[in-house]
Design a protein that fits this description.
Blueprint: H1 17-29, H2 31-53, H3 61-83, H4 89-108, H5 115-146
Helix pairs in contact: 2-3, 2-5, 3-4, 4-5
């Protein structure tokens, strides 16, 4: 019968020890990036429901639909980026552009959007842009440290 009991000891003799250490170090390096990407998810969800939260969905339905589509897109991209943060640097630019669209969309989509809709979109878009820039900066600094 095989001996499968746990023996305390050093794992340094394991054939995959160096690979496991490298994988664990990469995971720890991208932990902060994943936290920022989770904020992107929350901002995207807020952007999607903001028309009904701020109550401009009936007055400006075209802006409400724009916010819904862009917000769901931001949330989906944030989810993808939080799942694999080390491969998400290119998606940060897309999130940045969507954040800029949130900022300018009250004037592009709807001529007279109203103060609540403008403030909601500008603040949410600025937060999305900030989160995308922070995540991109963290990824760039981590990639420089590993090279």
């Amino acid at each position: 019968m095989a001996d499968v009991s746990h023996r305390p000891g050093d794992i340094s003799g394991h054939p995959d020890a160096s690979e496991m250490r490298e994988r664990y170090a990469r995971m720890l390096q991208t932990r902060g990036v994943a936290a920022v990407e989770e904020l992107v998810i929350l901002a995207g969800i807020y952007a999607a429901v903001s028309a009904w939260t701020v109550h401009f969905s009936a007055a400006k339905p075209e802006l409400a639909i724009s916010n819904l589509i862009v917000g769901l897109g931001i949330a989906a991209l944030g989810l993808c980026m939080s799942m694999v943060p080390e491969r998400s640097q290119d998606l940060n630019f897309v999130v940045l552009f969507l954040g800029v669209w949130l900022i300018v969309s009250p004037w592009v989509v709807s001529r007279d959007a109203g103060t609540g809709a403008i403030l909601s979109n500008v603040i949410t878009g600025a937060c999305v842009c900030l989160f995308a820039l922070v995540a991109g900066g963290l990824l760039m600094s981590k990639s420089r440290n590993t090279v």
